[in-house]
Amino acid sequence: MNIFGAMYDKTMQWSKHRFATFWLTFVSFIEAIFFPIPADVMLIPMSMSQPKQATKLALYTAIASMLGGMIGYAIGYYAFDLVSDYIQQWGYQHHLDTAISWFTKWGILVVFVAGFSPIPYKVFTICAGVMQMAFIPFIITSFISRYARFLLVAKLAAWGGEKFAAKLRKSIEIIGWSVVALAIIAYLLLK
């Protein structure tokens, strides 16, 4: 089954589309609020296919993520009771509990680390609002951490460029099915 190869080809095709930058920023914005797919899914192929634009793409992605983070913060601050059931349904409750304990222990430093954490960023944006973290330090720290992360990802992808894209394409089925297998194993172990 060539599922991941077809998805990879489509993603690479989309990365060169004239509206790709819009979709990259849109995905980055909504990912900081509720969307489960990170912006990296678009940032990486776009940076590989447009290496000279990698820094600019990382900046756009970080700005959109920060703006989405502001909405996530507002949800946590003003409407947490309305969304708490969705957080449980979507399987983020454990992540939220972890983030709250981190906020209690380390404060603003958690927002910086969250930019690089495997825990979805939306959890931290909503949690920052729930914890009523100071808004301006939240925004500044969010931007710095998200830009650092996206710049690192974009520059690595740009450095690999089209040559890396071709090598990745050859191994995408193995990588894709390995990730699926690891996700199933993790789910079964954590169940």
TrEMBL record:
VTT domain boundaries: 37-154
Protein name: Membrane protein YqaA with SNARE-associated domain
GO cellular-component term (any): plasma membrane
Keyword field contains Transmembrane: yes
InterPro entries reported for this sequence: DedA_domain, VTT_dom
Residues that span the membrane, as ranges: 20-45, 57-79, 99-116, 123-144, 174-190
Keywords, in A-Z order: Membrane, Transmembrane, Transmembrane helix
Coiled-coil stretches noted in the UniProt entry, renumbered to this chain: none
